[in-house]
TrEMBL record:
The keyword Nucleus does not apply. It is found in: Cell membrane. This is Cadherin 19. Residues 1-21 form the signal peptide. SUPFAM superfamilies: Cadherin-like. Residues 52-149, 150-257, 258-371, 372-476, 476-586 form the Cadherin domain. One of its GO terms (cellular component) is catenin complex. One of its GO terms (molecular function) is beta-catenin binding. CDD domains: Cadherin_repeat (cd11304). The lineage of its organism: Eukaryota, Metazoa, Chordata, Craniata, Vertebrata. Keywords: Calcium, Cell adhesion, Cell membrane, Cleavage on pair of basic residues, Glycoprotein, Membrane, Metal-binding, Repeat, Signal, Transmembrane, Transmembrane helix. It comes from the Eukaryota. It is a single-pass type I membrane protein.
Length: 780
């Protein structure tokens, strides 16, 4: 224990009293019950009040009281026994007198009471002379615990400029001493550091604002709060806690420009949208409270615009319209910065805005020539003579030196053929007559270049409209198919016609239709003008005969209303059709086609019959030849080469021209090896190969004869390389476990060999099995 414990003036007592099991719980809870020092009798027991401090510091046991039976004669016949919580460890009893001692210090905060049992027995008989008595020892508290701030250190935030008395936060300390007894757990709060800005309520620990504070002056404060027990009386324990108080920002400061006058410059060549410069108004607030918008005052020239950079809160001045050094060289604008979010509580402090002046100088630059118009529209009559003037463009150098300008046309191959421009005065000339019906508009791009600085070029668009001239006569819109029945009556309408004109007409087209005066068929047909740009063709008589005249050609005159009017002659073909009154178009077209060929229907049927007979005869011949082809034997010398048969049996070689797919030395090994012999010994060579063929091939007279003939033919033919036949038929290789399928080298004797097993090899070997099957005869 420290020295403070020795100086405590307040001590807590231990009260000793009996209790029954029914009253144990209520007795244990009543820790503050007062005690009157008198003797009490309970169940034959005599109880005496017991007192002891909570912390026992004496090395010797401390007497706290005595229990005694009323049957005790003090002759030593009774023995007292103590049992229960702490018996023997904390508490001891004198077995002769019943006096109870405490041997160790007691801590109420660890255990506030102990339940024990007192017994009295006869030493001689060891029998109980009294019923066991249960009692509770309550430990009364002393101030032996310091206050504690369990939640510290504390952090709190309060808006700046808050009024006096505004609650900031609350701190709370705890004390382990008994709050229901004495003042050991009664705490008192005080402010150690933080005056004069804050105060604390002594009983609750609530920290409040003592005065209005500006965050822009100081945004954080450190406050120390002390908590004392014993209501702050001398000898009390204390503890401190640190509270960090941050002032949050409010919009209580307007934006302010650091410069009252800005100077900027911009080139007259700068395009719209160019950044001219930046201005900045400082706001001491933070976050949204410092957000601002920039404006250009209404009385400033409408040449510039300003936007706000949301990240840096700068005002960016942009070029809204092109500037011209020669027109105006200096601008002065007034820029205003206004807070975006305004706290109405501080409006009385003044407007939350500020203004500044920005002077902008226009820098001179070598500008390209400027056309008097961005787009020119010109007109010219179609058919105008070559060299006719279309119009003129004009451009000038806007700079002070006024450099001469040279004109040119951005030519395409077509425009270069149609137009040219005078490079000195900008006159555009038509180089050949223009046809409005081909193109009514021409788009020309003209450039103007400074002669002193050819890099300075500007362009203008010239739209040339070709004005219409009545230079196209009207005509029929299509080739009409006109038919008339042989039995047509006079005055019958057989065709309605119209006209088209490539020219334009300001008043609208109006066409006039008539029949040419020199028409020889004028008595057969007439033309009626409907006065609505259409006309009708009518029969001029009744009855027509195909035998007399199959076609009639009517010259139709069409005249327009142009100045001067133009007339064209259009031929309308009328075909006489074999019909009564209504025309069957398909049948009439068929009749006209036959008439143009000079054939009648009967003649056409006869021609088709002849063609059909010839086709049947040709198909019959083809079928007979295919039948004969199928009956020929597979080894016909005249039909196919034996080597081709070998290829068709799934030969995977590269063909006769593949000279690298095999090793020719292999053809000269084992049983097929032979030496080069001169061509003059052909007979002996054939006999040698014949003997070898008996060793490697089947015993078939036809096969041997075929091989011999092919060998002799190959050896006597100077156009083939040597061993050509041997290359194809002699040696198939020795690497395969299945052996060779070739007839050469497959049998070493003259005996016939059976090839019936080939039939079991599947459909791919069906033809081979048929050729070598044992049931085939030579006659096959």
């Amino acid at each position: 224990m420290n020295s403070l414990v020795l100086l405590r003036l307040m001590v807590m007592l231990v009260q000793l009293w009996p209790c029954s099991p029914s009253t144990r719980n209520s007795s244990a809870q009543n820790t503050a019950q007062s005690f009157t020092p008198v003797r009490r009798v309970k169940r034959g027991w005599l109880w005496e009040p017991l007192f002891v401090t909570e912390e026992q510091i004496s090395p010797e046991p401390v007497y706290i009281g005595q229990v005694k039976s009323d049957l005790d004669k003090e002759d030593g016949n009774l023995e007292y026994i103590l049992a229960g919580e702490g018996a023997g460890s904390f508490f001891d009893i004198d077995k002769y007198t019943g006096k109870i001692y405490v041997k160790q210090k007691l801590d109420r905060e660890k255990k506030p009471f102990y339940i024990l049992t007192a017994k009295a027995i006869n030493r001689s008989t060891q029998l109980r002379v009294e019923p066991d008595s249960e009692f509770i020892i309550k430990v009364r508290d002393i101030n032996d615990n310091e206050p504690q701030f369990l939640d510290g250190p504390y952090v709190a935030t309060v808006p700046e400029m808050s009024p006096e008395g505004t609650s900031v936060t609350q701190v709370t300390a705890t004390d382990a001493d008994d709050p229901s007894y004495g003042n050991g757990a009664r705490l008192l709060y005080s402010l150690v550091e933080g005056q004069p800005y804050f105060s604390v309520e002594p009983k609750t620990g609530v920290i409040r604002m003592a005065s209005g504070m500006d965050r822009e002056t100081k945004d954080q404060y450190l406050v120390i709060i002390q908590a004392k027990d014993m209501v702050g009386q001398p000898g009390a324990f204390s503890a401190t806690a640190t509270v960090t108080i941050n002032l949050s920002d409010i919009n209580d400061n307007p934006p302010e420009f650091q410069q009252r006058l800005y100077y900027m410059s911009v080139s007259e060549e700068a395009p719209v949208g160019t950044t001219v410069g930046k201005v900045f108004a400082e706001d001491r607030d933070t976050g949204d409270n410092a957000a601002m918008d920039y404006f250009i005052e209404a009385d400033s020239p409408d040449v510039f615009n300003i936007i706000t950079n949301e990240e840096t809160q700068e005002g960016i001045i942009l070029l809204k319209k092109r500037v011209d050094y020669e027109s105006k060289r200096r601008y002065s604008i007034q820029v205003k910065a206004v807070n975006r979010y305004i706290d109405e509580r501080f409006l009385k402090e003044g407007p939350f805005e500020d203004t500044t002046i920005v002077k902008i100088n226009v820098e001179d630059a070598d500008e390209p020539p400027v056309f008097t118009l961005d787009n020119y529209v010109m007109e010219i009559d179609e058919g105008a003579m070559r060299g006719a003037l279309v119009g003129a463009v004009t451009a000038r150098d806007p700079d002070d030196d006024e450099s001469p300008v040279r004109y040119s046309i951005v030519h395409s191959s077509r425009l270069k053929r149609l137009f040219s421009i005078n490079e000195h005065n900008g006159a555009i000339i038509a180089t050949e007559p223009l046809d409005r019906e081909r193109a009514s508009w021409h788009n020309i791009t003209v450039t103007a270049t400074e002669t002193r600085n050819p890099e300075k070029i500007s362009e203008a668009n010239v739209y040339v409209q070709v004005l219409d001239v009545n230079d196209n006569a009207p005509e029929l819109p299509k080739n009409y198919e006109t038919f008339v029945c042989e039995n047509a009556v006079s005055g019958q309408l057989i065709q309605s016609i119209s006209a088209v004109d490539k020219d334009d007409s300001a008043e609208g087209h109006h066409f006039y239709f008539s029949l040419a005066q020199e028409d020889a068929n004028s008595s057969h047909f007439t033309v009626k003008d409907n006065q609505d740009n259409t006309a009708g063709i009518f029969t001029g008589k009744s009855g027509f005969s195909r035998q007399e005249q199959f076609f009639f050609y009517l010259p139709i005159l069409i005249q327009d209303n142009g100045t001067p009017p133009l007339t064209s002659t259009n031929t309308l073909t009328v075909t006489v059709c074999d019909c009564d009154t209504e025309v069957n178009t398909f049948y009439c077209r068929y009749g006209a086609f036959m008439y143009s060929l000079g054939l009648s229907t009967e003649g056409l049927v006869a021609a088709l019959a002849c063609i059909l007979i010839f086709l049947v005869f040709f198909l019959a011949i083809v079928a007979i030849r295919q039948q004969q082809q199928q009956k020929k034997p597979p080894f016909s010398e005249k039909m196919e080469d034996f080597r081709e048969n070998i290829v068709s049996y799934d030969d995977e070689g590269g063909g006769e021209e593949d000279t690298e797919a095999f090793d020719i030395s292999a053809l000269r090994t084992r049983t097929v090896m032979r030496t080069h012999k001169p061509r003059k010994k052909v007979a002996s060579e054939i006999q040698s190969l014949y003997r070898q063929s008996l060793q490697v091939g089947p015993d078939s007279a036809i096969f041997r004869q075929f091989i011999s003939e092919k060998l002799e033919e190959a050896n006597t033919d100077p156009s083939v390389p040597p061993y050509d036949s041997l290359q194809t038929y002699a040696f198939e290789g020795t690497g395969s476990l299945a052996g060779s399928l070739s007839s050469l080298g497959s049998n070493a004797s003259d005996m016939d060999q059976s090839y019936d097993y080939l039939a079991d090899w599947g459909p791919h070997f069906k033809q081979l099995a048929g050729m070598y099957s044992s049931h085939r005869t030579v006659g096959d």
